[in-house]
Amino acid sequence: MKLFGSLSEKTDLDEKLRHYRRAGHVVPSKKMIKTPEQIEGIRRSAAVNTAVLDMVAEHIRAGMSTGEIDRLVYDFTVSHGAVPAPLNYEGFPKSVCTSINEEVCHGIPDDDIVLQEGDIINVDVSTILEGYYSDASRMFMIGKVRPSWKRLVEVTKECLERGVAAARPWGFLGDIGEAIQSHAEANGYSVVRDFCGHGVGLQFHEKPEVEHVGKRGHGMLLVPGMVFTIEPMINMGGYEVYVDSDNEWTVLTEDGMPSAQWENTILITDSGVEILTY
Asked: Of 18, 82, 91, 2, which Cα lies nearest the Cα of 50?
């Protein structure tokens, strides 16, 4: 990976951005393009974030409460010198989001919510290490899951993989959205519109917004040094969702059908893309 280390390379980048801007394209601001030093900090944070999810994968099981998952995430993160980014973020009360079955995202862990055989759950982990942020989530299938739900989880992961594959330097955000949307809809699923991926690294949520629907060749230009999440939320039924009025956080499908989500933080490089979190 090589990211404009010299003055001449930076000048070339600036000229290329001016060219695209003159051609009528939306180009990222300088704040959206991370320096090599910042990228190294984000990469270190991402390594801890991945380790947290690996730890969850080792422990998650039927009979475990989501409150227990939250405590495991907090203890592991802090023991590695980092901080769980969700904790107290805009009032969110826990260290991780745990979203089960028809819950789309932002599920709040609770000792009274116990995983059952056949559940599918998204565990969404975000980490701050030395001021740098990273963000990723995985789906887990608890015990024997009905085949249609298993297929939803698998296709959603494929959607993420296709979105990542479509993210290329000097391509467009719309390329990512089109890749995800076309694969989801070809398999009979819908893509949640109300939530999207986002820039990350120096803050929890930065620009740009990364939509999971779109049209190839449209949207913001993708430039080496950009760091953002791709995190498609794919529903078995319609894409309509609502926020639980009881806790004002948990998002659920309007029709009560199951939803799945996978998420990576990625870096746009000079030659392609680097997945920072798994």
From this structure: 82
pLDDT confidence of residue 10: 66
Instruction: Please name every residue paired with 114 in a beta bridge, in sequence order, or none if there are none.
Output: 65
Q: Per residue in 184-212, is it b (16+ CB within 10 Å) or e — as a string?
A: beeeebbbbeebbbbbbbeebbbebebbb
pLDDT at 169 over 90: yes
End-to-end Cα, the chain, rounded Å: 19
CA 212 to chain centre: 11
Write down the residue that tokens 């039924």 correspond to.
Answer: 237
What pTM, to 2 d.p., does this model score? Answer: 0.94
Q: Which residue has the tokens 């009360």?
A: 93
User: Reduced to 3 states, what is the DSSP secondary structure of residue 69?
Assistant: helix
- What three-state secondary structure class fits 274? strand
Cα 50 to Cα 55: distance, rounded to the nearest angstrom: 9
Coil, strand or helix: which one is 132?
strand
